[in-house]
Each structure stands twice: as C-alpha cells, then as structure tokens.
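I need you to check the entry underneath: sequence plus fold tokens. Let me know what the token row says about the fold.

>
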Amino acid sequence: MENGVSSFNHFIHELAVDSDTSSLEYSSGEEDMDGCEYLSSPSSQGSRASRDSFADYGRRQVDWIQYILLWIWVPIKFLLGIPFYLFQLVCSGVSRPISISGNQNSSQEHSNNRVQSLKDQIIHRATDRRRGIIEDLNLGIEICIEAVFDMVHKAVHLLLSPSEAFAALHRLFSSHERSVIDDNDGAEDASISTATLGENDPTPTERNTNYRQSLNTDARTCQDVITELGYPYEAIHVITNDGYVLLLERIPRRDARKAVYLQHGVMDSSMGWVSNGVVGSPAFAAYDQGYDVFLGNLRGLVSREHINKNISSREYWRYSINEHGTEDIPAMIEKIHQVKTAELRLSKPDIEEDNNDDQLYKLCAISHSLGGASVLMYVITRRIERKRHRLSRLILLSPAGFHQDSNLVFSVVEHVVFLLAPILSRICPAFYIPTRFFRMLVNKLARDLQNLPAVGGLVQTLVSYVVGGDSSNWVGALGLPHYNMNDMPGVSFYVALHLAQIKRTRRFRMFDYGSASANMEVYGSPEPLDLAENYRLIDVPVDLVAGQKDKVIRPSMVKRHYKLMKEAGVDVSFNEFEYAHLDFTFSHREELLSYVMSRLLLVEPNSKYQLNQRGVRLRKKVQASVNG
C-alpha cells in the first residue's frame, strides 16, 4: 500500500492506460504526428513506461502479475479486438528490468539495431493516414460489440424502469405525429425545397466527409504535407502548348536568387520529394539552405487535367517521353523564369534596364529516373532550337536513357509491348488502377502489408524478384498519399513503348513514329534524334548518381551516360551509393542528401548581377552628394 493505493490497483491502472495508449498509437498514431519522424516503434513507448513503473518489483511479484495477465486480461482484450502483441510487449516490459546490467547493455544494442533496420519502413508512415482492411474489420467488430452491449444495457434499464419506458414511448409517438404535421405543412409551402436546403445547410457536406473518413483513405496532397510541417506553399497552374494543365508546386523564397527545380520519375509525383518529412526530404533540405524550391509534376494523372474537359482517354494518354521533355518541362521552367524575374525586379528596383535580358537567379535541376531522361532531352532540344534552357546545373539520380542491361522480366515486357502494340494502344492507352474502389482496395491492402510483416515481406520479395532483385521498399511506396482513391499517376502506353524502343535499339533516342516519312515530318530526318550523340550541346555541369543495388536502372547504364558525356567534353561527375532505385527519393539517406546539397552549393548567385548592383548604389551615392 502506497499513498492509500494498493500496488495491484496501481499496476492495473497503469497497465490499462499503457495498453490503450499503445493500441491508439498503433492504429492511428500517424494522425496525431503529422509529418514527424518516428523515433521509436509505435508501441514501444507504452512498453517503456511499463518497464519504468515496475523496475522495483521482485521476481515473485512479476511471475504472479504475468499469471494474472495470461488467464484474465488477455482473453478479455482478445475478445474485444486488442492484438496479442500488446500483451507480449507489456510482459517484456515487466520482466526486462529484472535482468542484470550486462544483459541490459546487449538488450539496448539489439533495440538500437532493430530500430535502425526498420527505420525506412517506420519513417514513411509519417505521411500515411490510412487504415488497412484488417484494421477496418477489427474496428468494425469492436464497434458492433459496443453497440450490442449498449442496446442490451438500455433494454435492461427500460425493463427495470417501466415509468421511463412509457415516457420514452410517449415521446417517440408524439415526435412522430409532429413530424407528419410538419411534412404536410412543408408540402403546401413550395418555396422550401430539398435542393435549397442542401446548398445552404452544411450537413450534407459533413456527412460526405464523415463517409470518406470512415473509409479512412488518406487523400492528402503535397500541399497538405508541406503546410502541415509549417512551410510556405504556392500552387502554380501551367498550361503546355498542347493543352495539358500541369501543377507546379512551390516552397517559396521570393527574394532568393538561387532556385532548385525537382522533377520526379515514372509513376511518381512531387510527393516523392517531401514524403520523408522535414529531416529526410530533398525539398525541405534545399529550402532550409536558402533555395526557392519548385516541384514539377509531369502530365499523366487519372483525373486527366486538360483545357479540353471532354478529352477522351485515348487522346489524353497519347504522348511519349518526347512530350515530357519538349512540352512539360519547358512550360514549367519558363513559368519559373517569369515568376522569379517579376519577383526579383519587384523586390530589387535598382536593377538597370540594360540587364533585362540577364537571368537574375540561378536554377538547378534535380531529377530522378524518367525525370532525368526528360531533363536531358529538354536541354539538348533547347540548344538545338537555340533557345535558353535557363539551368545552371543538372543533378541526375539514376537517370533513364539506356536500358539494354536489364533482367529477363524487362526483356519479356519489351517483346510483349512490341508484339501487341497495335492492340494495346487501342484497348489500354495507359497503365493505372481504373476505378476509385480498386484504388481504395489496393491502398488498404498496402497498409495491411505494412502491418503484417510476414506477408509484407513475402510481397516485397516477390516484387523485388520481378524487378531483378531491386531491394527498394516497394510495399512502402504503395502507401504514399498520392496513390489514393481519388487520383494517382499513370504511365502512358506510348511512354512504355518509347522505353522499349530505347532498350531494343540500345540508343538514347527520341520516339520513333514508325516510318521514315513520319520521322521526317517531326525531326527532319528519317531516324529519330539521337540525344546521346548530341551530348556536346550540354553546356552546364552534370552530376550523375547511380545505385549499386539499383536493378531497374543499373549502374552500368548510368556509367554509359557518364562515358559519352566525358567524351563529348561535358563537365560531368559520377558517384555511386549503395542504394536501390526508390532509395534516391523514397528513403531517408543522409549520405545522399548531403551529397546532393553539396553539389547544389557549388552554384553561386549571379556575380555579374552583384557587380551591377554595387555600381548602381555607388552612382546613387555620388549623385546624392552632388545634389546635396
């Protein structure tokens, strides 16, 4: 007995609190920790509290407590849907303080290793607010049990209190009669309609919102992630020359004269650059270094954003990598130029008129996978057209462009695409999950795979074998919020056909339209433009980064870019990290992030602009002294 409370009651009270807390943290802890990095497993805090609370108990008391937990507490909690692993955590928390100091050190080391090995899977749940199907079933069962017991409780109460039962029946019938009278009066008054009430009354909207929340699907956007973490945000809608509406997102530093443009790869979006939260995301790291950050989104969403609202699916998805490099990226970079120039001239009115044609800022591009190939295509085609590409440096993370060194599965896909191209282009213009229901189902199953390590590990292994043994967290990638029931990125069939052409010809070329006359009309030659043969036109430094464990775009293919650029006289560097394909954006890699930031810092603001500014200030001072 301590402070008037028995030790057993004190134990049961804290155990109930810890169990409930752990259960809540495991099922919906990501809802309470918006965008924050998880420093421990969701259920470890409750276990640690149990260990600290009962460090002074003796061996006999611990055995007795575990006996009570096993025969009384666990069956009740199991029937109510509380997972059995909570009991194991609590028991381990109770018994662990009994060990000697040497075992404590080994246990501490084992815990640290376990946290480090699961770091990538835990950290990405900071942007995941969904429940899985199994979690929904568990919650539904708990709600049903609670509803049944509530009904039984009310029924017993009414049986034991007849007066209250008659009063309840009287209120029920009287309210029914009043509702009938009100309905008759409403029928006579034609000015009141359901549509009008629905527009003015927020109740229908709230019901719709509650319905979506009951499905517990995370439909957050890149804007939600950025603003929840306390960063500024700006959305810029860009229209390409062929009518596609693109979303250029921004973490603005309006007075900054150094900017960075981040371009995602295939089946990805701007969410990939912010999915690791404040600590591990390239977008936030660049902003913290003083950069004005722009996040590009290529065409290719299920929602089919286009100025023609009635565009058909076949027409919308009729594009290849050509359109990414010659339409999407030029439109977004020109918009960046317009915005930055206008803002800098507004904030620095001392700029001379003679400098109207000078670029007042430095813009670097960081791109991944297909985004890297698109950026290279953009720079080369702009140089051929003798237009400014406005970029100061290219940082290409596992860029696409060469694919002959690939596994058997990719080779089979290549042959199937070529063989069935006339049929697939008509019946399957793009590859994506077609309906909202199936997108919701896939997202929830992905969450279940994260919560069931054995099944998730099996799926992870199977997918990694399909892509040649790539060890990326493929299951975790499906849990990103931009794969939601409302929208998701897709892959055009012609993008897949273009990649197959590159793989078959072993050359980094633009899209082959199938005939010499068609190519002549587009390129002015019977063959598509070979981009690698024009690497000499690249007039900015290029940093190539490859992943030693990347089996989607192998290091040998990135080295081929490096070799051809070196032969063409490009200022190019090459580096390898022990990463897989998705690790460049999806995983938290401090070494890679430090390297990328170090390459960005090599680009300094325009020195000519600084000299001009000093000259303007000096002339103003001289003129002021003369006038004075």
